[in-house]
């Protein structure tokens, strides 16, 4: 009788402990870890130095003196250096008529390099991959790029694939969000995320200034990374995802049209970067920060900002007010490192000003823009690689990523560093000790500054 009573009394406790175990075990398997990542560094033959850029501009027959002056101003102020990379069709002088095979070659060179290296780093084989997510915004093939990767690496028949196009420069965080969602419903999953952009079919050869600008900023690059929710692999992981927030302003016409692929008056396809782009980016950033701030900042900082904001509003509304300084939230109270999308010098400066960041905080983004240019969705990972090469990451540090993309979108996330890192990734071969250089001034003005003094009626580009 006593045993029966003991069993009856113990049964609810056993059930409670079982339920608690299931909840804890489920949460453990929902964590999203990065095992490793590999950024792509093309060969030196694909570099766009000042001399070669001049040749590319000269052979673009649709440009006149006014366009040359605009290009010079844009390139000089872009923050891009002489060691960025272009696709082979530009190097070979075929930007007027690139072929489908040119675009495939650009992607396959990147796939073979980065995927092979990240698999080697993690010790996994292609058949260990359960989920494959590829994002390349402006190239859609049939079969898909994901199918090409599966065919090349002979992955399993049950691998789940996602092939994203048209998602812009913020697509890598969208890909990670897809993986994060899968991890919440499936245990013991390895995911390969491949992020890049295809410049080959999207190099603009017209004379529309808003579309010429894209040629000055976008460069070849890409990154492959392996994520997992396997608890057994946690000790091998380098980052843990803490939270991720996505903001989309596509319903607003002004934001939607600020950054869009379109045709010019003569039917040439290009990527339009509108004058209202900074405003659209600012609004998307503000809305994104409003949502993610409570998740990543300590309560004391949120309370401090709330009190100061209330006092500011009271002072502004009073008759004697108007001179008070608007309070700023201190993101450094909950973040150790800032990984900013290299959309251009103005983008980096704008985010730095909005978040109250120092030059030390902005250095990784500036150096990535200078060395690799805007590599679209993969640019965040080059910034991450710079910080790793500089040995900035220590166990327990928190890394805040911010990216923008056409649509218009702003996506951000927070990572926790799981161990001290110093691998360096693709920056290993870049002589990292020479960064940052004493000056970021590029030699374009020195070599082509004479264009500013030319007269349109007598101008002729020297042979």
TrEMBL record:
Pfam family membership, one: FAE1_CUT1_RppA
Keyword annotations from UniProtKB, A to Z: Acyltransferase, Membrane, Transferase, Transmembrane, Transmembrane helix
Pathway assignment: Lipid metabolism; fatty acid biosynthesis
Highest taxon of source: Eukaryota
Record protein name field: 3-ketoacyl-CoA synthase
Transmembrane regions: 6-24, 162-183
PANTHER family per UniProt: 3-KETOACYL-COA SYNTHASE
Catalytic activity: a very-long-chain acyl-CoA + malonyl-CoA + H(+) = a very-long-chain 3-oxoacyl-CoA + CO2 + CoA
GO molecular function, one term: fatty acid elongase activity
Cellular compartments per GO CC: membrane
Family classification: Belongs to the thiolase-like superfamily. Chalcone/stilbene synthases family.
Residue ranges of domain Beta-ketoacyl-[acyl-carrier-protein] synthase III C-terminal in the record: 333-416
Entry EC no(s): 2.3.1.-
Active site: 169, 248, 337, 341, 370, 374
GO biological process: fatty acid biosynthetic process
Annotated FAE domain residues: 26-308
